[in-house]
Write a structure and sequence with these properties.
Layout lengths: L1 H7 L3 E3 L3 E3 L4 H23 L2 H47 L15
Antiparallel strand pairs: 1-2
Helix pairs in contact: 2-3
């Protein structure tokens, strides 16, 4: 998993001029492009209005991009929180192993 995280942060070039380094940006732009095509095409097939279909496609791009980026960032934050909790638990296990504070060696009190 660590290799996947490093590979996703190397960035990409947007429109050939902007080098985007933000995590999740590449996937969000790709999802937005797909959402734009689908929304614009469906609206055009339903109404045959070109200008309005372009506007709907652009709105689809914006909404899909922002939604995808927000979801990706939230899931990354959740994953980092889980990793911190596991790391802290492993550190505590190493520190308390073999001591009287070790939860594995403590016996429950008898009534």
């Amino acid at each position: 998993m660590a290799g996947e995280e490093e590979g996703s942060e190397k960035g990409f070039r947007l429109l050939g001029i902007l080098d985007v380094q933000t995590p999740c940006a590449r996937e969000a732009v790709l999802h937005g492009a797909g959402g734009s095509i689908i929304a614009g095409l469906l609206h055009f097939l339903a109404t045959s209005r070109v200008r309005r279909s372009f506007d709907v496609g652009f709105a689809g791009f914006m909404l899909t991009t922002l939604g995808s980026w927000s979801y990706c960032r939230a899931s990354r934050a959740w994953m980092r929180a889980q990793q911190r909790a596991v790391k802290e638990g492993m550190k505590n296990k190493v520190i308390y192993q073999g001591t009287s504070y070790d939860p594995e060696t403590q016996t429950p009190p008898r009534p």
